[in-house]
Here is the input.
Amino acid sequence: MRSMAEPQDHLAHLDHRGDATGFSGQIHALIPKCKLIENFSTAEVRLLSHFMNVYNAERGAEIIHEGDGGDFMMLILEGKVEVVKQDRWNRPQVLALVDAGSTLGEMSMIDGEPRFATCIAVEPTTVAVLDRENLARIIVEQPMLGAKVLMELVLMLSQRLRTTSSRLVQLLDEQTERAANTAL
Amino acid sequence: MRSMAEPQDHLAHLDHRGDATGFSGQIHALIPKCKLIENFSTAEVRLLSHFMNVYNAERGAEIIHEGDGGDFMMLILEGKVEVVKQDRWNRPQVLALVDAGSTLGEMSMIDGEPRFATCIAVEPTTVAVLDRENLARIIVEQPMLGAKVLMELVLMLSQRLRTTSSRLVQLLDEQTERAANTAL
Here is the structure.
């Protein structure tokens, strides 16, 4: 089994700062801004941080590339990240600009499918990374913590799915309305 | 703590058949059609069924009502269910027609938010129900099974979020294109 502190291949271009135990205070301070750990105790944050790796990204560095494989998610500890997706004319569209406390990449960590969007550090940025292998280790070695992490992930995805589904239904309604108006 | 076999208040209008242990063979047979349990062993299905309740719904019975609270998900064992959502003019729009092996209501089980859509049995239907309290019991009493259920839920939501997000991005692209054409 890979050592916890071994860096992710996909992040080899970033500066690996080791595992996140030395950052657990900083992670804990993000609780009010971070859904993933909002219900975590100090001890649980410390335990979780053993299974995460920390990386520094320079301004302009791509942390996640749309379409790539990849089996990790990240929690932004410091800095700002732009989330960009190519539209059908291959023009980059900014989907979001996020900062400390935001998490990115959960979907691919879970399902291993290609990344939905690209994430670029727009200022010097520090991230704590959790990969699928370490998530599996948490589940086996610390089942209650594992269940808690998974429960929070389910909650986050569920809320995002609600938001996205509502926007989709709204857009489809607008299309129907426009079609009806055109027909009049 | 409520007994496992005690029926859900929101399902009091349906015929409660007791807990799902007597149905674990039927549940197991649905593995090829059901993402939630696709990686479950026979023993895991049997264990899970202890924490589920089975209900019969007559043709036309509403099993889930859009906008209601509700803290359970269900697995369709037999029958057919129509998923309907009101559009902004309060007209019911059929979102999906699903049958044995499909699961419904995961989002509200997890986050307790109002139901996104209404589910109506369009023929005599049997469902196995898992509620949040029993999910919590699984996590405490059978942590590895709990982690497995949660992992499958995360996978399902993640895949649905991808599909929904892609459709949303596509629709937004089409709008942009239409706006550009109109401007020409």
In short: The first strand of chain B starts at residue 15 and ends at 19. Residues 9-183 of chain B form a domain with the Jelly Rolls fold (CATH 2.60.120.10). Chain B has a mean pLDDT of 90. Strands of chain B lie at 15-19, 53-57, 62-64, 72-78, 80-86, 92-99, 103-104, 118-121, 125-131.
